[in-house]
Amino acid sequence: MAVRPVVVWPDDRLRQPSVAIERFDADVRALYQDLVDSMYAENGLGIAALQLGDNRRMFIVEPELAGRAKTDPPVAFCNPEVVETSEEQQDSEEGCLSFPDIYIKVKRPMRAKVRAQDLAGNWFELEGSALLARCLLHEYDHLTGKLLVDFVGPLKRTMIKKKLTKLKGAEASASELGDG
Ligand code: NI
């Protein structure tokens, strides 16, 4: 229904505790649609509700990555739980819409199984490996307030903070100019 601005770190809204979805109503479907529109606008593979400043427990994943047809709608994961992860690990660079142009090497399990409810409230399970496992675990982390910067040391964290704060300042003055 609407593309909404993605919350960029450091912003406290990314650390809010998230709340379970209890009623699968039009309101939840509206949130899903905003997530879909905002994810596609930013060319993301997934996005969590907290990234739009909404603390309901939902994230979505791009359909092809989630094993569906390209033309299918993105897959909604409401009230997700990680039920299984592999011992085997993978180690590669990861990005996040809340950290524009930042890529961080993150070690993750090679496979992960997630249990969640769809938009009608029906429980389903999805197991993924490689990039899909990485994406599921990354989006799940968002719902627990865990972010990419939690995988780096204090020095790198300060560097990232400087870079993103500067970026935010530049955007704010550009829109001021635009409005004026
Ligand atoms: Ni992210």
Q: What are the bound molecules? A: nickel (II) ion
Cα shape: globular
Low-confidence stretches: none
As for the number of domains, it is 1
DSSP helix fraction: 25-40%
* Biggest beta sheet attributes: 5 strands, antiparallel
Summarize the entry for a quick read.
It contains three helices and seven strands, in the order αβββββββαα. It has 180 residues and is α+β, with helices and mostly antiparallel strands.
Provide an overview of this structure.
This protein has 180 residues and is α+β, with helices and mostly antiparallel strands. It has a single domain (12-149), classed as Peptide deformylase (Peptide Deformylase). The protein contains three helices and seven strands. The protein has helices at 26-41, 130-143, 154-179, and strands spanning 46-48, 58-61, 75-85, 89-94, 104-109, 111-117, 123-129. The strands form two sheets. A five-stranded antiparallel beta sheet has the order 1-2-3-6-7, sandwiched between helices. The chain has a two-stranded antiparallel ribbon with strand order 4-5. It is globular and about 45 Å long. It binds nickel (II) ion (NI).
